[in-house]
Write a structure and sequence with these properties.
The complex is a heterodimer of chains A (222) and B (221). By secondary structure, chain A is an all-alpha fold. Chain A has eight helices and no strands. Chain B has 221 residues and is mainly α. The chains are: A mainly alpha (222), B mainly alpha (221).
């Protein structure tokens, strides 16, 4: 079929599978950064300071409306100009983590706003501190409505990791490019990369939907 | 070199890159809307095979990365006898990718049109096609427009990837400028600002205007 060579496929598959490990690692690390940083960005928009709220809002908008691949280049190349050298992995994790933190902060914001005001008043009347109110009362209730969005962006960050190949992070796409330029065969490596992405992202997306409905049932939210 | 000297020297290249980016965005957006409508409607067809084709398209394009799709279209499709120029391959990849996301949006919006509208169309003895075009779709468009606003920004951002198959868009130009001057903050920073300005002050307002225009047209101002 179309000059597809199975012997070549079996030869490069182990290399691609090893690279898939790197892709998953990059997605996991980036997502970890995004989950924490996103919460900080969301909470920073809820302080009494209006200036801070506006500044963070605009920064989030900026990150969300500019291309990730450009942000990756920016983080990677601007450092050395000022004497700060970042490895591809570090620069990549900063860029992708920050990018998805901006997206996740919007998800959190929606979740936090969905918590009824009465919960705040109840916490105040119980004399809980702000931090305690957030961590024991508000965030647990804001989490379930945020789960769908969080899951979507987990799959999203996984699908965006190929962009890290542009600064030389040895993930799946980078490896496929390397194989392509060594052997001048692009059909098998690029097709396999597509198949590997499908094989991982489709079940993950389905699993996330199941998990979400399980959480909702568990919390009696229908 | 100060920033102003930088702009004076490289401004025209940045401008020509910006124009290419805008051109790509417009073409990819048209393709995405057409493909999304077709796939979204096919997804709801009674025929199993038609539905299957749309589902496979949507799942493949939503399940893999835009970059993978771009490389595949540019480097692998020629092996099947379909050769595209890099500019064409660029906007086709972006348009097909966002079209898959748009298809789900179209389907969701059509399903969200109240059931009474479908029944009214039936009661008036409209053919299914006429009912879809004259009654359901116009209302569905109102429902899906805010979603398209987000997709258009994703689409603009997606076009930056075509620089990697060396289409001379904004991303490509600043990458080249950075390669010769090593003024990374200036070159990449300028591009970031331009993308932001296009998204925030051109795309978003025009999508808002379109929403208002459609609402007025539907008598729901």
């Amino acid at each position: 079929m179309f000059d597809w060579r199975w012997d070549f496929t079996w030869e490069i598959l182990p290399r691609l599978i090893v690279a898939t490990g790197n892709t998953l690692l990059a997605a996991g690390l980036g997502y970890g950064i995004a989950v924490v940083l996103g919460l900080i960005l969301a909470l920073a928009q809820r302080t009494p300071s209006r200036a801070l709220t506006l500044a963070v809002r605009e920064a989030v908008e900026f990150i969300r409306s500019t291309p990730l691949v450009l942000q990756i280049f920016f983080v990677f190349y601007v450092g050395p100009q000022f004497g700060l050298r970042l490895s591809p992995w570090t620069a990549g994790m900063i860029a992708i983590g920050l990018h998805y933190a901006a997206y996740l902060s919007e998800v959190y914001r929606g979740g936090l706003e969905s918590v009824p005001k009465g919960q705040w008043e109840a916490a105040t009347s119980l004399n809980l501190s702000t931090a305690r109110t957030y961590f024991r009362v508000i965030i647990p209730q804001a989490l379930p409505p945020s789960l769908a969005g969080m899951g979507n962006y987990l799959v999203g960050i996984f699908k965006d990791t190929p962009m890290l190949s542009v600064i030389g992070v040895a993930e799946l796409m980078h490896t496929a490019n390397a194989i392509g330029s060594e052997t001048y065969r692009f059909l098998e490596p690029y097709t396999l990369v597509g198949v590997i992405f499908l094989v991982i992202s489709l079940p993950t997306a389905a699993g996330i939907r199941l998990f979400e409905s399980w959480v909702r049932r568990k919390l009696g939210m229908k | 070199m100060t920033y102003f000297e930088f702009l004076a020297q490289y401004g025209d290249r940045i401008l020509s890159g910006t124009l290419v980016t805008i051109g790509l965005t417009v073409l990819a957006a048209i393709l995405a809307v057409v493909v999304a409508l077709a796939a979204g409607l096919m997804r709801m067809a009674p025929n199993f095979a038609v539905r299957g084709v749309a589902t496979v398209y949507i799942e493949i394009f939503r399940g893999t990365s835009l970059l993978v799709q771009l490389y595949w279209i540019f480097f692998v499709l020629p092996l099947f006898g379909i050769t595209m120029e890099k500019f064409t391959a660029g906007f086709v990849a972006v348009g097909m990718n966002l079209g898959a996301y748009g298809a789900e949006l179209v389907r969701g919006a059509i399903l969200a049109v109240p059931k009474g509208q479908w029944e009214a169309g039936l009661a008036l003895n409209m053919s299914p096609a006429k009912r879809m075009v004259r009654v359901i779709l116009p209302q569905a468009v109102l429902i899906m427009l805010p979603g398209w606003g987000n997709l258009m920004i994703e689409l603009l951002k997606g076009t930056a990837l075509v620089a990697l198959i060396s289409v001379a868009d904004l991303m490509f130009q600043v990458k080249q400028i950075n390669g010769t001057t090593f003024m990374s903050a200036e070159s990449f920073g300028t591009a970031l600002i331009i993308y932001y300005v296009i998204a925030r002050f051109m795309l978003t307002p025009s999508m808002r205007w379109l929403e208002r225009f459609m609402r007025r047209k539907m008598g729901r101002a």
